[in-house]
Amino acid sequence: MPATASTREVTIEINGLRRTGTVEARRLLVHFLREDLGLTGTHVGCDTSQCGACTVEIDGVAVKSCTVLAVMADGASITTIEGLTDGSGELSRVQKAFHDHHALQCGFCTPGMVMSVRNLLRENPNPSEREIRHGLAGNICRCTGYHNIVRAVESLASEGSVA
Amino acid sequence: MTISQGTRHVGQPLKRREDLKLLAGRGRYVDDLKLPGMLYMAILRSPHAHAKIDSIDLSLARAAPGVRLALSGSALEDRIGPIVPNWIIPGSKVPVRRVVATDRVRFVGESVALVVAESLAEAYDAIGLIEVEYDVLPAVTEEQDAVRGDAPQLHENVPGNITTFYKVKGGDYEKANREADQVVKLRVVNNRLIPTCMETRAIVAAPEPDGTLTVYIGSQVPHMHRRWIAETVRIPEHQLRVVAPDIGGGFGAKMHLYPEDLLCPYLARELNAPVKWWETRSESHQSTSHGRAHTEDLEIAFNNDGRILGLKVSTLGNVGAYLSNMATGGPTVNTVNFGTGTYKIENYEALSRVVVTNTVPVDAYRGYGRPEGAYIAERAIDAVARHLNLDQVEVRRRNFIQASDFPYRPYGSTGVMYDSGDYQALLDKALEAFDYEGRRGECEALRGNGIYRGIGVAAYTHMCGMAPSRRLAPGGFDRGGWESARVSIDSSGRATIYSGSMSQGQGHATSLAQIAADVLQIPLEDIEIVQGDTRQVQAGHGTFNSRSMAVGGSSVHVSSHRVITKAKTIAAGMLEVDEKDVSYSAGAFTVPGTDIAPLTFSKVARMAYVGHKLPDGVAPGLDETVFYDPTGMGAPSGVHMAYVEVDPETGIVDILDYVAVDDVGTLINPRLAAGQIHGGVVQGIAQALFEEVSYDSESGQLLTGSLLDYAVPRAEHVPNIRSSFQQTPSPTNPIGVKGIGESGSIAAPPCMVHAVLDALSPFGIKHLDMPLTPPRIWAAIRSVREGDAR
Amino acid sequence: MIPAAFDYVRASSLTQAIELLRDNPDGAKLVAGGHTLLPALKLRLAAPELLIDIRSVAEIKGIEIGETHVKIGALTTHSELSASEPLNNVFPIFRETARLLADPQVRNRGTIGGSLANADPAADWPAVVLALGAQLEIVGATGRRTVPAEDFFLDIFTTTLAPDEILASIQIPKPKTGTRYAYRKIRHPASGFAVVGVAIAVRMLDGVVDEASIGITGATNHAFVGKEAAEFLTGKALTRDNIDEAARMLSENTECLSDRYAPAEYRANLVRVELGRALLELSQ
Fold it and tell me: Is the ipTM of this complex over 0.90?
């Protein structure tokens, strides 16, 4: 798309790579990621910023990418779920814990949930069960009843680094 | 159980094989698909609950940038057949449902016109340019209002807004009523819910170069969708390929035929381009089927010892503006047939009426009718205990169907049979895990300090995997009860299994492989499960009614056995021994009692495909397809208990503990089974405490239009679920499985309601309708307190 | 899910942002965190022609702990308010409130200025700035003015901000030694907004209340100061009876909102219960 009055060129570092694109001002970041860059691991589960399926990290903190314009993310550094597995496809420790504890069923909320768990552990590396449940207030899971997600996070508590 | 080779995988809490792609963000859901030249459909929906459409002006929309097509219902009337339900209880009056409304709209959200554009943004922009003039009509949203004489009528061929009358009768209720010590009446409301799969519905229809059409759809029932789309859009079924990729939850909502499922295929062929539709969350609240929405009047006849002699039920099932796919079956067969629950109530009488209203169509949602049925039985037994001031556990014991009674036909029913179970044992396990006695004392002690704690108990049973096929016709269910599996062994001895079941997160790639691995005796890594593609999978009914393991799993089991049977014949030929002397164990064919070297499965597979040395009359190949039609249905059961504390000042309920003991027959994978219980229980807690669809009863406007006001629970709203199992194998299938997916959402609502009512018992509150929100609980306490003050 | 088309400018200064507002009197909207505006745009409940992104405006960022006042830039996010040790050393109520506000992702992006300027009747910060006696610094084409928080909120989603004005900072007088704070809130289970939220600041001297201040949100069209209850408490000990009386007074004097979830009587009850509990916390 050529840049016009209502479009902008944006440059965003995504998963360590510098990506540029021309977007309409109204383009949501989540659509830029999914549609323009093909990073479909970030999902859209609602339209009122409740569900958290679209959670990514912008400049190191978890954000709902459905509530950010791509133009607003110009110049930012973003990590999506695809950025957590290195070239070998090896899962990160949060992802491994989800696998070990059966903390996902349909998998739709999972990428956003994983991003939120990382955020939670960065802020509080050793959360109690209550703190885990409170810390995941921005994500809805309809399959697991949260039980095993909480178990997965508990297994990570006090382990230290988030990566 | 016929697993003769020894169980290795079934029963193991294996981790899921499908997790890795989903965790890495490499799942593939319908909305992830982007095809070259793809166009986007958007729907204009009715803002009115009931109105005549006077005029529709599409000219501005048609002239808008990027728009390829804008249509109203009249252009489609002759092109796409009306949407026909798939389960029609005999005698039902079926209103005509056009794919897009033509002259009249009957609920907020009904499709009125559509736009196809080159981008989704342009499609949304153009939708805003369509001008519609409506003549607003009076609306009715509640089932009790809809059956009144003066209610607005929705359909000419549905007098009184009732599509279906359904009766069940066993024993002699009137006699029981006369002979009982006491009779109490109770009205219970089963609140309307939104299934809320985290992935909303989406569909892409893509014309292929060879003239066929591929439809990508998040479907629990891909082969059913192929049939329905073919019949309604008039595409030869064999030229239609339905692909269901990864699905972000279904819970029943993704097993119906919706207008968009028909529009995309039709438009893709018209425009000769792929057409995508994706549902926004707010749109989903007014276009995807809702669940529950019943009112039941109960009359319970019982003796002073707590024994229930008879139960009479009158159900009004609100099915919304039109009959969705299975709508007539839910409030009828699925609800009132199960109204006696786990109790021996021999005199039973029920009348169910299926009612249309100006609301979103209501259809299956996790449990479909069985939660409503269990709620009847459980609220009845609880009412008796409360009325007599007897212990809720003891009253259940006195009324339970006993282990020696199985197989048991409640109230002499011909349609319902509980195959097996042991409710007393379930109850004992639950009481022990819960520490009932200790907590009972704790509740009593704390009440003195103004702390209101309560214990809830609920028992349930139901039936899973509607079958056998020949028994489904009289009920008007227009499909079979079988499931199909093809076990295809390649020349290396590895298996690809094509299953007609359809995982939406249940983990079939793991659980079905476990079933096959035990029969085939090959490693799990050597088994691939293929689902969700009608071009690859021969046939199927999909996943609903907790049928995937009982019926789908059994079909995998049986076809795997057929593979081994044939392999054994080939092996016998290769070993030059009699087939009877060959046995198969640990992945090799041996001849016990001889020194003949074992022959591996992979060598036999290679022989099957080169065909060099096959016994006479044996065809090459090692590939078996089975259409497995069960002889009956398994009846899972369970006892759940909850411990809550209610803050009388705010009405807030704190769930302190939740114990679930379930008997779902043989466990294929305990880890995944517990996951099903956790998720189902939380959906049940959601119904009991949080979720409720609200309509403005005057205007018919949907008041819970988004996740800002429809309260799906978050992690902090729900407790840990302590799940355990009892395994009474079902005699109705070869692997002894009963079905698990719906258990939690059936048991949890009455369990939670009973816990809260128990906590509120010092106030004398005997009944409250779900959801038990803080304002509702507080208002109930306040009215008691004000009453006391007067 | 996709907003109607608009133009977008990233303003680099307050002056530029104000000029843009003035030049587009009907069609411009400010955006910072975007967590109020973008959901409205996505549902097409609003369709501005121009979005002015003020996140790069350095002069309204940051938290300053001054001699007499604490100054919070309007662009400060909820997470920054929660994380700031210097701020919470003075006013621990910021961390206490932020913890109960929305969810972590929203807190990472949403700003206190956006929350105050939007004046959602159920937002949390309005109650807090009221209880803290904050002054709101407003910058417009004609200059700067300062408005006491109490005069800022006019009605549902309505403040004293003129269309070409921007909320620049929140200035809070530093408390006297010994002032204690509490924020209590009953969250709506779906939205996370306050069904009722109560912020209080109380200073005790010689066993009686020396100063008290109460901000209430969620109960009415806009957040308000519970003046009468605060005055009642002044000079009295925080006994159970005095607390109950103050709570009853506030509850009875409040004309509460009614909605599908919570009728007015329930909200009035929560005002009483939550104020009572907040005071009880501080009395111990």
Answer: yes
